[in-house]
């Protein structure tokens, strides 16, 4: 609440425009922590009402998903948003691990989600357990620190101690994720003094590499099921977004997989993978162009399944 006015003014100044030049105001409507959502919503409503501009409430995860359409240039290098619908999105962040079938703006089918921890949460816990430091790394801190350690390690040394999640016959066919078992296995491994010594950087690096590799294995295994299931739908791309999608090992794995299905892998640049304001603004543009303007009585949605977006719009136009 203290900083919003100067941030908004700073953005307008940096763009070299006047507030009156804006076409609309987009704001994160949910999901998220109620006090944070309210601070943004109040500021956005005030701006919109004073400037007499339309307001657009944005779903945080839709914004992660649609950023790819801002940052990809198509063959003619024109600014037609690409990839075109339908495409598969893997959203891997601090709070979510989702496989979505993106069918249009506001139209998502959730094919899979995590049954317990999000992948980013598990990565953060692993980085903490390994006592990595990330004070200087800013955004994406623990994940970036883990990736850096892993880049100096070998994954094969400890991989056998970290079983692939949901690999039993029945659960291997299920389109959901589970990262809590992997997290526990990692914790147990870290405390095995007969096997590892965290004062030795080689041990830390090898542990980080094994853990990162297992995360990639699990993500790829479930994504493969989703791609097989959607084979006949005319998919145009595989999109990976959210903070964890800035991990190069994970990107490489997804790239191999998408090639097998003849699809391009599209990932926003790392700075647009973790949370940012650009993705909210872009989603606002997409929704404005689709005529999905909200009214000033709009409320925040702290809990908001992404599949409900469809319904929300149906309700709004009814
Ligand atoms: P959500 O979008 O689900 O509400 P969030 O907004 O907190 O969660 P993001 O900002 O999208 O999440 O991503 C943060 C997560 O990404 C953190 O768990 C962070 O450790 C992880 N992350 C960032 N960079 C990397 C990287 N290079 N490798 C692995 N993980 C990373
Ligand atoms: Fe996020």
UniProtKB/TrEMBL annotation:
Record keywords, A-Z: Acyltransferase, Metal-binding, Transferase, tRNA processing
UniProt feature coiled coil, ranges: none
This protein's record includes keyword Acyltransferase: yes
Source superkingdom: Eukaryota
GO BP: any one term: mitochondrial tRNA threonylcarbamoyladenosine modification
GO cellular component: mitochondrion
Residue span, Gcp-like domain: 2-282
UniProt name for this protein: N(6)-L-threonylcarbamoyladenine synthase
Biological source species: Bifiguratus adelaidae
Lineage: Eukaryota, Fungi, Fungi incertae sedis, Mucoromycota, Mucoromycotina
